[in-house]
Automatic annotation (TrEMBL):
Molecular function terms, GO-annotated: ABC-type quaternary ammonium compound transporting activity; ATP binding; ATP hydrolysis activity
Keyword Isomerase listed: no
Pfam families named among the record's database cross-references: ABC_tran (PF00005)
Protein name, UniProt field: ABC-type quaternary amine transporter
Length: 243
């Protein structure tokens, strides 16, 4: 297995509260990892360690085999897509400007390459080009989320991080976006790490699933195996919610 991301004996605390405790995990290239657990269990903290938004107190995070502490964090983040709930688009920028933001930084001398990337991802996420000149305030919640996904992917990163990206949309749009991200994943074979509070979503999307509570991993396996053989009472409780 080629490794995309590796955590080695990670610990992180805020004051007297330990949010991640002796966390070790290896994520292979091309995996779609869903992370689920109780509120405050450390899953978002782990996600943010991958692109250096959070630095562990102890332990090592490797991305592409390189310790993030030794990397230029701006360069690291430009090569990792990041989509969160509500998409958080730049409100003063058009759809085109939002999607092209990172590609423009990477392709300063090749505007045509950036234009092609914008058109490609608009098509992949199912948005018409007549939306390119619209502002976020002129879009529906689902459209904003699609633009957020396109922006996260426009620079063709190897890794995509998603933190409850579909949590702020209605159920119909949520199902549509789940299907979109499944299709994009199959097309690109990108490595995805996806945080969710919804067990059904975690099972549907993940090639593997992490169940966390109180800063530790309770189970890491294929979703079907977790459903059939929950290893701890906490995992059993989550599985019961799915049923």
């Amino acid at each position: 297995m080629n490794t995309a991301i590796e955590f080695k004996d990670i610990r992180k605390a805020y004051g007297d509260t330990t949010v991640v405790n002796r966390f070790s995990l290896t994520i292979g290239k091309g995996e779609f990892i869903t992370m689920i657990g109780s509120s405050g269990c450390g899953k978002t903290t782990i996600l943010k360690m991958i692109n250096g938004l959070v630095i562990p107190d102890e332990g090592t995070v490797l991305v592409g085999g390189k310790d993030i502490r030794n990397e230029d964090l701006i360069t690291l983040r430009r090569n990792i897509g990041y989509a969160i709930q509500g998409s958080v688009l730049f409100p003063h920028m058009t759809v085109e400007e939002n999607i092209s933001y990172v590609p423009n930084l990477l392709n300063k001398k090749d505007k045509q390459k950036t234009k092609k990337a914008v058109n490609k991802w608009m098509d992949i996420v199912g948005l018409d080009n007549d939306m390119l000149n619209r502002y976020p305030s002129e879009l529906s919640g689902g459209q904003q989320q699609r633009v957020g996904i396109a922006r996260a992917l426009a620079a063709s990163p190897d890794i995509l991080l998603m933190d409850e990206p579909f949590g702020a949309v209605d159920e119909i749009t949520r199902v549509q976006l789940q299907e979109e991200i499944q299709r994009i994943y199959k097309q690109t074979n990108i490595t995805v790490v996806f945080v969710t509070h919804d067990i059904a979503e975690a099972v549907k999307l993940g090639t593997k699933m992490i169940v966390m509570d109180q800063g530790i991993i309770h189970q890491y396996d294929e979703p079907a195996n977790i459903l059939e053989n929950p290893l701890t009472p906490f995992v059993s409780m989550l599985v019961a919610q799915k049923e």
